[in-house]
Structure formats: structure tokens, C-alpha cells
Design goal:
about 30% strand; disordered C terminus; alpha+beta; five-stranded mixed beta sheet
Length: about 150
């Protein structure tokens, strides 16, 4: 029996150092996850090549809000839930981005079986919203290997 894919959306504010409580109060939204720069493992913080590491591998402070994964075929429907949460806060997010030198990003997380992928379309309104925050977007896809292997042998 084929399962519907699950789709979750994450929103991140990432920077050198900032206070979780301050960001949450200003946005009126509690973080689902928070990791301060000081919380990274010492081995990473003391890495001799730290300056040469890509940004995403460097110790940093991360404030994250998520829309829980739900079964479905439409990425945009899940993304609209995040937009509804953040809508009207674009100016505030951009002010925080500039003031604290933050990176704003979204991540789409998809778990699926081989051959049962969701529709990979974002509406022009969704793209405009992402752009209004000067945000990056990433897509993580996890494919059930057990199902994939059996599917290939049929």
C-alpha cells in the first residue's frame, strides 16, 4: 500500500548571536527550536579550518519555527500555512535581518516512497513572499529505501 508523502515547512533566522526571547517577543511567535552559538560542540568551535567552512557548517545561532509534516501531495498548501503565520511581519523580519545580520531561510522537508512524490510547485504568491524576506529556500527529500528497493525488483 502506497503512503502519501509527508511535507513539513521550516522557517529559520540564523546569525552570529542573538536572544531567542527577544526574537520570539518581537515576532509574537515562539520558536519550536533554538540553538545558540555557544551550544555547538567544542570540536566544531575549535576547528582550525572554521574560517574556510561553508556558512551552514559554522557555529551560529538558529531560531526555528516549523509547520508540522502532514500527508499530502501539494508543497504549496503546506507553505501557505507558514505564510499565514508570518504574513504581516515581513517588515519586522527584514528589520531584524538587517539589524542582527541574519540569514532568513525556509526548508521544505519531504518524506516519501519511491514514485510517490508530491507536486513540486510553488505559486507566484509564495515565491513573492519568500522574495520579500530575501530568503533562501532548501528542499530535503527522504525516500524510504526499503520501499524503493522492493519497488525496483518488481
Amino acid at each position: 500500500m502506497v503512503k502519501l508523502p509527508t511535507i513539513g515547512i521550516w522557517f529559520y533566522l540564523t546569525g552570529t548571536e542573538f536572544c531567542e526571547v527577544d526574537i520570539s517577543k518581537k515576532l509574537g511567535i515562539a520558536a519550536d527550536e533554538f540553538r545558540a552559538k555557544k551550544d555547538w560542540p567544542d570540536a566544531i568551535k575549535r576547528n582550525k579550518d572554521l574560517l574556510n567552512l561553508p556558512y551552514w557548517y559554522k557555529p551560529r545561532t538558529v531560531w526555528a519555527k516549523k509547520i508540522n509534516a502532514e500527508h499530502g501531495y501539494f508543497i504549496n498548501e503546506q507553505f501557505e500555512k507558514m505564510i499565514n503565520l508570518l504574513e504581516g511581519k515581513e517588515g519586522l523580519i527584514n528589520d531584524l535581518r538587517q539589524e542582527l545580520d541574519l540569514v532568513v531561510s525556509f526548508e521544505i522537508v519531504i518524506e516519501m516512497e519511491l514514485g510517490d512524490k508530491p507536486e513540486m510547485i510553488l505559486s507566484s504568491e509564495t515565491i513573492k513572499f519568500i522574495s520579500s524576506l530575501n530568503a533562501t529556500i532548501g528542499i530535503d527529500m527522504y525516500i524510504d529505501e526499503e520501499v524503493s528497493s522492493s519497488f525496483l525488483t518488481l
